[in-house]
Write a structure and sequence with these properties.
There is one protein chain. Helices cover 44% and strands 13% of the residues. It is globular, with a radius of gyration of 17 Å. The protein has a 5-stranded parallel β-sheet with strand order 1-5-4-2-3. The termini are far apart. It has helices at residues 3-18, 30-38, 51-56, 72-79, 94-105, 117-123; strands spanning 26-28, 44-47, 63-64, 86-89, 111-114. Strand 2 (44-47), helix 3 (51-56) and strand 3 (63-64) form a beta-alpha-beta unit. It is an alpha/beta fold.
Length: 132
């Protein structure tokens, strides 16, 4: 084995042996998210915006847990299943990225956040449901 392959093997082992991950949450495009929502198993759709933003329009079937609430972590652990796929979104993607990272640190294994949030969703011509 040459030096390069040895170095790669050592780095790979070190990363795996560490037991922790610091990966960034994975973003998903609006097109991929729209397809994912139609697939089985269907992801839990998590809106992390405020109640006012949610009432202005949200992705159909979304559950809301506001990212900035003190109880975000507690509610997420109580109301979501760590083994189910989760699609997280907000208005532009910033809050959902942070929320997805937090969910990952809590043991959620299949989390993606919507790249560009509802702004990108609407721009792509995809529907938002109004709260009643």
């Amino acid at each position: 084995m040459n030096f390069r392959n040895t170095l790669i093997a050592v780095v790979a082992f070190s990363v795996c042996a560490c037991g922790t991950t610091t990966t960034q949450p994975k973003a998903i495009s609006t097109a991929a998210a729209a397809q994912w929502i139609k697939s089985e198993p269907r992801p839990v759709i998590l809106d992390v915006r405020t109640s006012g933003e949610f009432s202005e329009g949200h992705i159909a079937g979304a559950k809301r847990i506001t990212w900035t609430d003190r109880d975000f972590e507690t509610r997420s652990l109580k109301e979501l299943d760590r083994t189910e796929p989760v699609l997280v979104y907000c208005r532009s993607g910033a809050r959902s990225s942070a929320a997805a990272k937090k969910l990952g640190s809590l043991g959620f294994t299949r989390v993606r956040h919507l790249e560009g949030g509802t702004l990108a969703w609407k721009k792509a011509g995809l529907p938002l449901t109004q709260a009643h």
